[in-house]
């Protein structure tokens, strides 16, 4: 999939044997997956009994009563982008392009995560009852636009999941010898189970547990690498990478060195990656669901903190792992010695697994197996709940049963969870058998995910975009992107194949065309037939079901004195939400300028090749940043959520969950439609 690496497969044939047995693979993928699912089901039931969070209610299942705190939101944001691809892909581009690859990978992720805070807080202000992005599109533009954006979002989610499963299954197969198709179908099993029962809150909690575990293992790797005698120190690692550049100069890099930001391949990937990721974030309904689930005060700080913290993961691990692999590839400690890695191994995402095997043997392989499993299941959970929300709210409730009850929507959400888990696995299997792997999907993803960037952003932020522009511009953008992608592949290589369409240059041009062309399309079409949308119209349609007020009362209304969920959001004044919007805009601009412009571009233009001290500082800062991310992901949610944790603990010790349960049963018996204890009853019982 990476034409620049053709010709590498010559030389001594060495087959790398999986360091772990198939039994280990099945234990991790199936047994541990089911154990985690069981734990999440238990936690879900515990929260229901202690603080009244009832996941049989739609608002709790889909939006966690819009009350998730900043710490858990930031952890979930990191988890949403902590794909297996983030670790496997960043090491891949580091191996191919050198030091610039992981940096551009990280810089292609953080700005749009922070930018999403702008969209999230704008939605909180304009349409606080929304559950999905598509509800917003339908209310503003009607049925035709709703169907178009439903298609765009489902394509986004499907290819995102395929990208995750292809990379994760390949890595798990390399570590254990487990059949790649078995891994593809078994990975979603546990995810479907706990998402089926727990909904979005289970997704948040699982995100936290998985991401905390992943960060612990990555931080361990960041230290373990230097305990290997062949590495030893930062100065020695510098010499190893420097020597690798002399043995195998990189075409397009300054003096062929791996130790420079002046890399043609690196900056092309950076352009491709930032465009593709804007599409992946903005057209991913799971990001909107998590924004809707956060309390109004948590949206902006949660996304800003999460976006900046995330930067360290692909930057640090991509840089460190690829540097170790490049430096030690010609030594007996490396798994493929005496040959270099083949193009198939690299494109399959095996740079990181080989790094772990090199520095820690079977223990390293086990660590990669665990983090790959946890990364793919955590992000897959968000994708599954996103698609299930489309099926239940935007298909079933909109077109099949407008008067759907709470129970009806939950039932169809469950159907959506099961259907998408099976369909995504089957689709990924099909891609595998036609010869598509992680490298191909990593490079071409943006061609299909980017057309909705500007039309969707305008839907939320620009009141003048017309209905015709919203419908036509993304479709024209997708056709433009596909035409440019395939046309450039044919023009450069004389044929359109999986190999040529997975090459860097066709994917860059196709992605940029797909992302940028809808901007002039939308503006021009709007000028021909201008419209003016009143934001107040968003509030004319009631979207929310009855809010589970018992859970809010059970938590003693931690973020507002008003115990009714929807009133809690409206309690924040318009001016406060607008101020949060300005803060989000400032952070989004600052993050883009800092991570993508002011930091890397002068280094690219200067043609600077890293010296020993600069390289040591580069790696040291990345490692420190990674450990800081460990704090944000692991400790901050505990500190921020200490009140609810204490309330759960107190309820368990005092048996108060029985009182909440009795109050709920009593309320049901009195003819309450919701079947949930009223706030007054819960307060009386707790007092």
Automatic annotation (TrEMBL):
Keywords: Membrane, Transmembrane, Transmembrane helix
GO molecular function per UniProt: urea transmembrane transporter activity
CDD domains, A to Z: SLC5sbd_DUR3 (cd11476)
Superkingdom, taxonomy of origin: Eukaryota
First-listed, main subcellular location of the protein, grouped into a coarse class: membrane
Residue stretches of biased makeup (Polar residues): 665-675
Residue ranges of the TM segments: 23-43, 64-83, 103-123, 144-166, 172-196, 267-289, 301-328, 365-391, 412-434, 440-462, 469-493, 508-528, 583-602, 614-636
PANTHER family: ACTIVE TRANSPORTER, PUTATIVE (AFU_ORTHOLOGUE AFUA_1G17570)-RELATED, PTHR46154
Protein name: Urea active transporter
């Amino acid at each position: 999939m990476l034409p620049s690496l053709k010709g590498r497969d010559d030389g001594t044939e060495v087959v790398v044997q999986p360091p772990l047995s198939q039994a280990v693979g099945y234990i991790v993928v199936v047994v541990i997956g089911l154990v985690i699912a069981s734990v999440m089901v238990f936690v879900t039931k515990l929260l229901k009994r202690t603080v009244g969070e009832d996941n049989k209610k739609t608002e709790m299942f889909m939006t966690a009563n819009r009350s998730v705190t900043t710490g858990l939101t930031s952890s979930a944001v990191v988890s949403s982008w902590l794909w297996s691809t983030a670790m496997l892909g960043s090491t891949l581009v580091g191996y191919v392009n050198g030091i610039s690859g992981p940096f551009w990978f990280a810089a292609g992720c953080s700005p749009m995560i922070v930018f999403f805070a702008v969209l999230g807080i704008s939605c909180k202000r304009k349409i606080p009852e929304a559950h999905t992005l598509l509800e917003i599109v339908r209310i503003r533009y009607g049925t035709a636009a709703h169907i178009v954006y439903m298609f765009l979002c489902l394509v986004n989610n499907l290819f995102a999941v395929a990208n995750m499963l292809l990379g994760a299954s390949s890595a798990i197969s390399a570590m254990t010898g487990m059949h790649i198709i078995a891994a593809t179908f078994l990975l979603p099993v546990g995810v479907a189970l706990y998402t089926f029962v727990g909904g979005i809150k289970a997704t948040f909690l699982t995100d936290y547990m998985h991401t905390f575990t992943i960060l612990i293992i990555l931080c361990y790797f960041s230290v373990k690498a230097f305990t290997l005698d062949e590495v030893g120190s930062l100065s020695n690692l510098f010499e190893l990478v420097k020597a690798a550049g002399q043995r195998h100069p990189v075409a397009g890099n300054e003096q062929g060195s791996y130790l420079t930001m002046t890399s043609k391949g690196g900056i092309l990937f950076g352009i491709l990656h930032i465009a593709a990721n804007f599409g992946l974030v903005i057209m991913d309904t799971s990001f909107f669901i998590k924004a809707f689930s956060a309390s109004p005060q948590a949206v902006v700080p949660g996304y800003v903190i999460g976006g900046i913290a995330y930067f360290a993961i692909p930057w640090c691990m991509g840089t460190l792992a690829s540097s170790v692999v490049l430096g030690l590839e010609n030594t007996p400690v490396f798994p493929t010695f005496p040959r270099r890695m083949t193009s198939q191994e690299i494109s399959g995402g095996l740079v990181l697994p080989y790094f772990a095997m090199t520095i820690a043997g079977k223990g390293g392989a086990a660590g990669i197996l665990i983090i790959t499993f946890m990364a793919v299941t955590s992000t897959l959970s968000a994708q599954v709940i996103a698609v299930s929300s489309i099926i239940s709210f935007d298909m079933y409730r909109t077109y099949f049963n407008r008067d759907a009850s709470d129970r009806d929507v939950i039932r169809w959400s469950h159907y959506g969870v099961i259907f998408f888990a099976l369909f995504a696995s089957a689709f990924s299997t099909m891609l595998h058998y036609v010869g598509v792997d992680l490298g191909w999907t990593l490079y071409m993803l943006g061609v299909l995910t980017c057309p909705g960037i500007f039309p969707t952003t305008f839907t939320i932020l620009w009141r003048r975009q017309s209905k015709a522009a919203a419908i036509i511009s993304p479709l024209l953008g997708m056709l433009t992107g596909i035409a440019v992608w395939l046309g450039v592949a044919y023009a450069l290589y004389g044929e359109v194949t999986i190999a040529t369409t997975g090459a860097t240059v066709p994917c860059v041009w196709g992605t940029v065309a797909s992302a940028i062309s809808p901007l002039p399309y939308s503006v021009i079409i709007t000028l021909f037939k201008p419209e003016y949308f009143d934001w107040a119209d968003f509030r004319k349609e009631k979207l929310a079901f009855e809010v589970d007020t018992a859970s809010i009362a059970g938590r003693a209304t931690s973020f507002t004195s008003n115990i009714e969920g929807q009133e809690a959001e409206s309690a924040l004044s318009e001016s406060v939400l607008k101020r949060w919007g300005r803060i989000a805009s400032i952070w989004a601009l600052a993050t883009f300028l800092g991570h993508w412009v002011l930091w890397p571009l002068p280094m690219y233009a200067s043609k600077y090749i890293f010296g020993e001290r600069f390289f040591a500082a580069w790696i040291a800062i990345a490692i420190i940043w990674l450990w800081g991310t460990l704090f944000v992901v692991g400790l901050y949610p505990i500190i921020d959520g200490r009140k609810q944790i204490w309330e759960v603990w107190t309820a368990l010790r005092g048996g108060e969950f029985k009182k909440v349960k009795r109050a709920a049963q009593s309320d049901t018996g009195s003819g309450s439609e919701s079947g949930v204890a009223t706030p007054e009853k819960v307060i009386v019982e707790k007092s």
